[in-house]
Each structure stands twice: as structure tokens, then as C-alpha cells.
Amino acid sequence: MVSTTQSENLYKEARNYFPGGVNSPVRAFRSVGGTPLFITKGDGAYVWDADGNKYLDFCASWGPLILGHNNALVRETVIETIQNGTSFGAPTIQENELAQLIINNHRFIEKLRFVSSGTEAVMSAIRLARGYTKRDKYIKFEGCYHGHADHLLVKAGSGLVTFGESTSAGVPKSFVDETIVLPLYNEQAVLEAFSMFKDQIAGIIIEPVPANNGLLLQTRKFLKFLRAQCDANGALLIFDEVISGFRVGFEGAAGLYRVKPDILTFGKIIGGGLPVGAYGASATIMSTVSPEGPVYQAGTLSGNPVAMSAGKAQLSQLMAPGFYRNLSKKTAHFVRSLRKHIAMRQYPVRVFQIGSVFWISFSDLEHVRAAAQIDAASMLYFKSFFHHLINNGIYFGPSGYEVGFVSSVHTLEELDFAAGIICDALDVAFHK
């Protein structure tokens, strides 16, 4: 057992300051039990907690640290930039440089707008779709998370095609009534929604790689179907690539699946892990955004020079020849080790992978494409699994619904070591 005395003391203090002692709910360790670890340092593939414990990290700040912690070029660029100031609320050179890098290397974006988070990017993208189409309703899918804006905190109701129900107090019913929530990977539900709400739907928003509620891998066929239905009904297709963007490829899932969305959203990976987001589209659609058009969106920290310079430093490194191929290959090696052990022990477990993203599903379903396919009871295995990992120096996100990430600085030796510990943790979970 690792000693977590300092984390326990810090958490006790934090409960005096923050609801539940945290600034984001999953950090509270509610689903796994125990004390949240207070992280004090990250370097390469590792993080250290307040008690000095060292962990091989597969959380990567929930994905954006594709180059690992404390990347030298990102760090030095931030230090250089910050010497000239941290925020101006005015245009900067760094905005132009990062935008040019993205637009010149992403075939589906002609113009973009930087914001401060993935939530803000998605919120703005939906407003843009509504403003562009002059329609109010939109479709989202159960199992896809798009941030905590009011109209996004909606889960499915009781029918196949239904207005949703709020997943949070404080969300007005009028907001919920404009949101149509459908089951993932269900073409019939999409057809029925467009039939029921003809000429009322502004767009469809989907994580093309749903990775906030397990790794619910969709097929290219389904994504192409959504593209076709949007075209047929005058609606816009929004890809929420806050996790998949620049993670499964430089062009994200849109490039990987070769499906063109109308609007894309991105998160903190484009800022080297600093607080940043963006949404982009064709020049025509983006011309609807103020000051060119009537759709208003603004932010003092939008295009912050420190985040912009960090983003350029990170994304430039992702363009190295073979970067994504090598990272995916390394992840596949890691996943094969886990699958071999699972097959040998005949555990009801599957490991899903796309690029450098993986998910250990405590179910023997060959495909998990919709949230309803996840058995909540299966998460009971994750609790002991997680604590065995922590006690043996492996850091995962503290929820069985969260995915894991491999970074470019994870070595094969480190991945083999981690695979051994993970296999031991599975043995503990199924034999305790």
C-alpha cells in the first residue's frame, strides 16, 4: 500500500474551500473510493503525488499530453513567451501562427476561432449551427459528453426519439426542450427524429470517437450516414473532437474516417495542455460569427499568447513523419499483451483501441457502440482493479468509464511493465 498521508491532509483542507473538495467531480474518487491523489509534478511518462509516490501515467491530463508531461520544447516556449506578458485581450502574433499551422494541415477547416475550453468550443459551435441554419433544435447522442453548458447536460428520455431530461439541477426545461437525445449507433432513431421534427433541426453533434463514457467506437458507415442525413435535411454535422482531435491523427477522427463535418471543435491538446479550445468550419459558415456575422461569441482569454505558443510547440512536433503511426503501433503492442492475458484467463473483459486511446471494458461484448450496452454492475470490478494499479505505481483516471492514453514518451519497456501490473490487477479484480 502506498502512503497517501499528505494527499489525505490536503484533501481534508480542500473540503473547506471547494464543493466535495475538488474543482471537477471525477477527481473526488467517488466511484473508486479512497482519497484523491494531489499531484505535484509530471515529467515524461510519470507523475508524482504530494507524498512523493511515482506513477506511470495513462491519464495524461485526460488526453492532451500526447508528448508526455513537461515536454522540453513546450516548456521552453512557454517560458520565452511569458517573459513578454501573460494576457493582453488583444490580437497577437501567436494566434496567427497557431491558426496557420492548423488550417494549413487540416483539410476540413478554412477558418477557426480560439476559445478557452472544450466546453466553450462546443457551446459556440451549437450556437453557430443554430445561427447559420436559423433553427433551434439539435440532436445529440446518449453516451457522448460535450461539456457542461446547460443545453448539453441532457440525457435520453424513455422513448427512441425523445426530448431529454436534465442531468443537472439548474438547467431550465426550455433548454432541454430544444435537445433531441438519441441512442448511439441507431440509424432508425435518426431517421425518425428528422421525420418528427422536419425543418426544425439545426444539426447533429457527435463525438466521432465517443471517449467520455467508455470507448464507444462507431463505424465509418454510421458517420457517413449522419453526413448524408444532415445533407438531406439542411442540417449541419458537428464533430466534437475535444478528445480525438490531434490525438488519433493530425486531422483527428474526421481525417481518420474520411468524413467531412461542417463544424469541428477542439480542446486543450491544441494548447499543449494549457486551457484552450477552438471551433472551426468553412469560411462561409464561419462568416456567420461576429464581427462578420450575427452569431456573437467573445472571450478575454481567447487566443491567449501563452496557450497559443504552447500549442504551436506541441502541434509542430506531432507533424514529424511517422509520429501517429509509431504511437498507434506502440499502443497496439501494449494492448496485445493485455488481450493475451485476458484470453488465457478467459476473463469477461475486452480492450478497445483506436490510435493511442484505449479502454478496458469489464464485459465480454465484442463491440460496445452505445452507452446502454455498458452494464453498470461491471464497474464493481474496476474499484479493486484501480487500487491495485495505484498501489503498484500505475495511474489511471479514477473511473471505469474513462479511457486511457499512451504518449510518445512511453517506452516499450514501460508499457510492458505496466501491462504486467494491469494483468495482475485483473487477477485481483476477478479473484478477490
Provide the gyration radius in Å. Answer: 21 Å
CATH architecture of the largest domain: 3-Layer(aba) Sandwich
Q: State the helicity in percent bands.
A: 25-40%
Beta content comes to 15-25%
Mean pLDDT level: 94
What count of structural domains?
2
According to DSSP, the number of beta strands is 17
Oligomer description: single chain
Based on secondary structure, the structural category is: alpha/beta
Classified by CATH, the class of the largest domain is: Alpha Beta
Compressed to H and E, one letter per element, the order equals HEEEHHEHEEEEHEHEHEHEEHHHEEHEEH
Biggest pleated-sheet summary: 8 strands, mixed
Helical run tally: 13
CATH superfamily of the largest domain: Type I PLP-dependent aspartate aminotransferase-like (Major domain)
Please tell me what the overall shape is: globular
Remind me, CATH topology of the largest domain?
Aspartate Aminotransferase, domain 2
Give the termini separation. 16 Å
Spell out the key features of this protein.
432 residues; Aspartate Aminotransferase, domain 1; 2 domains; four-stranded mixed sheet; 13 helices
Q: How would you briefly describe this protein structure?
A:
With about 425 residues, the chain is of the alpha/beta class. The protein has 13 helices and 17 strands.
Q: How would you sum up this structure, described in words?
A:
This protein has 432 residues and is α/β, with parallel strands linked by helices. The radius of gyration is 21 Å and the shape is globular. Helix 3 (93-103) packs parallel to helix 10 (305-318), helix 6 packs parallel to helix 7 (220-233) and helix 12 crosses helix 13 (412-431). It has helices at 5-14, 72-82, 93-103, 118-133, 173-176, 187-196, 220-233, 252-257, 283-286, 305-318, 323-345, 380-391, 412-431; strands spanning 39-43, 46-49, 54-57, 111-115, 137-142, 154-155, 162-163, 165-166, 179-183, 201-206, 236-240, 263-266, 277-281, 350-354, 357-361, 394-395, 404-405. It has two domains: 5-70 and 322-431, Aspartate Aminotransferase, domain 1; 72-318, 3-Layer(aba) Sandwich (Aspartate Aminotransferase, domain 2), CATH 3.40.640. Residues 156-163 have low confidence and may be disordered.
